[in-house]
Amino acid sequence: MLDRGKVGGTLFVQSVFGLLDGIGGHSEDVQMMRRTADRLFGKAYQWSVLGAGAHQLRIGALAAAMGGHVRVGLEDSLWAGPGELARTSAEQVAKMRLISMASALTRRRRTRRGRCLASRVAIT
Predict the structure, then answer these.
(1) Could you give the number of structural domains in the chain?
(2) Beta bridge partners of 50
(3) Residue 79: strand pairing partners
(4) Of 18, 65, 86, 101, which is least surrounded by CB within 10 A?
(5) How many CB atoms lie within 10 A of CB 70?
(6) Which residues form the domain of 46?
(7) CATH number of the domain bearing residue 33
(8) β pairing state of 45-51 and 11-17
(9) In a domain, 2, yes or no
(10) What is the pTM of this model?
(11) Mind listing the pLDDT tens digit for each residue in 5-24?
């Protein structure tokens, strides 16, 4: 559709991981989906992930480390961590925000002037 001019602008691609009979919840699955989106859309897209159930924080952390957006909430998972039930979606968002901020600190980009800037990670 992009190559035929039927769709324009920046696409928003959300990959869902960890559902029964769907895409698995392993790091290799996340990397494969990102590579596929890169191959199909180049730089004309924003990437987001949703990790279902117990996969939510692990998949989210990996995607954040790869520069992606992350969707979390009680509608996708009841967990706030291993063996810990979440009380609210806000609790899950706060935990994912901390994880993504830590990921952003480990990724650096050089500007043309040679300064190091932390990459921006958005929570969606």
Answers:
(1) 1
(2) 16, 71
(3) 85
(4) 101
(5) 26
(6) 11-118
(7) 3.20.20.70
(8) parallel
(9) no
(10) 0.76
(11) 887 789 999 999 999 999 99
HSE-up of residue 105 (Cα within 13 Å, Cβ side): 6
Q: Is 68 among the domain residues?
A: yes
- Say if residues 11 and 41 touch (Cβ distance below 8 Å): yes
Q: Which long-range contacts (CB under 8 A, 24 or more apart) does 81-88 make?
A: 81/57, 82/54
What is the rounded distance in angstroms from the CA atom of residue 49 to the CA atom of residue 29? Answer: 11
Residue carrying structure tokens 């924003």:
46
Task: Please state the three-class secondary structure of the chain as a single string.
Answer: CCCCCCCCCCEEEEEEECCCCCCCCCHHHHHHHHHHHHHHHCCCEEEEEEECHHHHHHHHHHHHHCCCEEECCCCCCCEEECCEECCCHHHHHHHHHHHHHHHHHHCEEECCCCCEEECCCCEC
The predicted pLDDT at position 105 comes to: 75
Answer for the pair 99, 81: CB distance below 8 angstroms, yes or no. Answer: no
The tokens for 108 are 């650096």
Which residues contact residue 83 at a Cβ distance below 8 angstroms, ignoring those fewer than 6 apart? Answer: none
The C-alpha atoms of residue 44 and residue 67 are separated, in whole angstroms, by: 15
How long a stretch of residues is the chain? 124
